[in-house]
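Kindly inspect both lines:
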Amino acid sequence: MKVAAIKAPGGLDKLVIEERAQPVAGPGELLVRVRASSLNFHDFAVVAGMLPTADGRIPMSDGAGEVVAVGEGVAGFAPGDKVLSTFFPNWETGGPMLERLIGVPGDHADGFASEFVAMPARAFTRMPSGWSFAEAATLPCAALTAWRALMVEARIKPGDVVLTQGTGGVSIFALQLAKAAGATVISTSSSDEKLERLKALGADHLINYRQTPEWGAAAAALTGGRGVDVVVEIGGAGTLAQSVTGTRIGGHVSLIGVLAGFAGEVPTALIMSKNVAVKGVTVGSRQEQEEMIRALEVSTIRPVIDSTFPLEGIAAAFAHQVSQKHFGKICLEF
């Protein structure tokens, strides 16, 4: 079978296409013909060497495909089933615990840049009915992170005001999920063109954060000074202060990314005085993925896919991601 592998110490020029032996389904495992994957910042961190992994690691945490064979003792799956990976294959239900957060495909173990994979059945759920493999492959990391941030941790309800940052996969899914839940959405971006595309997806208010550096105060002003109920925070230290400024007293900040800095000043006095809850969110459990899929099937939400590349074009796909010219998800199809 054909795979993409990353050679130490990492870098897009260290991505190679190789032939490896096709695996077999052992006890408790599924053999899956992978049809699609999607790029996340986590995947880039792996291939760029920011997250060191074993030499020759097969990257990509997300995968969608068809069951080819079922190992001994597996129930609930059959050959021909369309399945979707889970980001944390050891996190089936409940809250996050260390033992549930290990084994991430494409990082701790080989991932989905491979024509075939053999993995435990618990590492998969069914795909949403009627979705393409590429559409489904956008869900395990980006969509589930947005789902847990809004529906599980912040528990949004109709009439809430949600602020999203940028036009990456998590942010666009957060916009779509928030609108489906009846929320008002304020979206930020540095590009007026991208803001117009967010408006077309349902964003109620738009802020260009380059033109409005104090966008937290601007967001609060859009709510009559009350502040937003929830911020989906992807920037981290570089944007947290503005997010807290824009949040209402007793509001919620779902911290799901550190794109603007791994460390920095935290507005502790403002967080305390406003009674703001800041909750770190790292994807979610298998049960939460199944719940999200059921919700998506009764909604009109469809992923926004910017572009697709073949497996052999994986380095070009990551280069496109680095350019930040994309809007939505970048996928691999093979």
Notes: The chain is about 30% helix and 25% strand.
